[in-house]
Amino acid sequence: MKYYIIFGPPGAGKGTHSELLVKKFSFLHISTGDLLRREIAKESEIGKKVKSLIDNGELADDETVLRLIENVIICPALECRGFILDGYPRNLKQALELDKLLAKRGSRINGVISLIVDEDTIVGRIRRRALIENRKDDLETETILHRIKTYHTCTEPLIDYYKSKGCYYSVDGSTTIEEGFESICRIIERLNSEQQ
Ligand code: ADP
Question: Beta-carbon neighbour count of residue 164 at 10 Å?
Answer without folding.
Answer: 9
